[in-house]
Design brief:
This is DNA-3-methyladenine glycosylase 2 family protein. This protein has 341 residues and is of the alpha+beta class. 40% of the residues lie in helices and 13% in strands.
Length: 341
């Protein structure tokens, strides 16, 4: 099959699969010099990789995130210095984090390893006020709030999750990243199969309307993502802002509301107090868990979480991890048919 050339990703597409041409000239020098870098870091306290990094995974088929049977976590990112792949594992006895990274952004990823594993988080500031929260907190001493320092990386998949089921959002993210991103850098044969780095901001802007449609993304969400990508540099500045200023920066973009900004800043900024409002299920879960009220709204949820001011996101996560949810009494959220919109 002759295949075709995709001008957006500068890759050859054959039989539905994307292959990257061998680098030449200056690119070849960069690729040749982008071998593995490594780092060890001792957290000083127990870290549970699954609990800490789990929120960065967008479904079981996320092409930017993998876990392997040896307990390692693999993650790709588009850093300010370029694409990178990170592999991190914990030494069984000491708990020391051992990381390797590949690609132009490898050094940036390794520099951010402590923040990624919750070094800037302060679990000691959290005081459980409810029996259920106390039990959940005691059972999960390794929970840390990650901070990626990358806003667009969390913002785009969060926009995809607006008003649709998780399965639909995960499918869209997987299709768009694999179709317009680039294969993850790393050792030959060593990167888990199917890993990709998300597209850069310019590529998100240039995705044609029919490919958004094929991914199941309606015009409202795709337009919001394109607007975000056009001001990506301004949005990335929010990673170093305090929570109120960071939320205001994100919500200045049409299509980005409190739900989306909170879900993003929980990951990019490690924001312990970024409680998610406007969620279809969360108020009922927290209301049921803490007060037996499955019909709680945002106002009641915020009232119940008020004793955890400054740590409301952590409290909400511990409540969700406790698994005490009200029995379902309504059908699941129907899947969206954007052809009828």
């Amino acid at each position: 099959m002759a295949g075709r050339f995709d001008p957006l990703t500068r890759t050859a597409v054959r039989g539905g699969r994307t292959s990257v041409p061998a680098p030449t000239g200056a690119d070849a020098v960069t690729a040749a010099g982008a071998g593995a870098r490594s780092r060890e870091w001792a957290p000083g306290r127990g870290v549970d990789l699954g609990l800490t990094l789990g929120p960065l995974r967008r479904g079981p088929g996320d092409p930017t995130f993998r876990t392997t049977p040896d307990g390692s976590v693999w993650k790709t990112s588009r850093t300010p210095e370029g694409p990178a792949t990170l592999r991190v594992a914990l030494a069984p006895r000491t708990g020391t984090a051992r990381a390797e990274a590949w690609g132009p952004g490898a050094a940036w990823m390794l520099d951010g390893l402590p923040a990624l594993l919750g070094d800037g988080d302060d679990p000691a500031a959290f005081v459980p006020r409810h029996r259920l929260v106390h039990a959940s907190h005691r059972r999960r001493p390794g929970l840390r709030l990650t901070r990626t320092g990358l806003v667009l990386e969390s913002l785009i998949p969060t926009v995809l999750e607006q008003k649709v089921t998780s399965d639909e959002a995960y499918r869209a993210w997987r299709r768009l990243v694999c179709g317009y991103g680039e294969p993850a850098p790393g050792p030959r044969g060593g990167v888990p199969h199917g890993m990709y780095v998300m597209p850069d901001a310019r590529t998100w802007v240039l995705i044609p309307s029919w490919d958004w449609h094929k991914a199941g993304v309606d015009a409202k969400r795709s337009a919001a993502i394109i607007r975000c990508a056009r001001v990506a540099n301004r949005l990335e500045e929010a990673a170093s802002m305090e929570l109120p200023q960071a939320a205001a920066r994100l919500e200045a973009v049409p299509g980005i509301g409190p739900w989306t900004s909170a879900e993003t800043l929980q990951r990019s900024n490690g924001a312990a107090d970024a409680v998610t409002t406007g969620d279809l299920h969360l108020p009922g879960i927290i209301g049921f868990a803490l007060a037996g009220n499955r019909d709680a709204d945002d106002a009641e949820m915020l009232e119940l979480l008020a004793p955890y001011a400054g740590q409301r996101h952590r409290a909400a996560r511990l409540i969700l991890l406790a698994g005490r949810v009200p029995p379902r009494r309504t059908p699941k959220m129907p899947k969206t048919d954007i052809g009828k919109l």
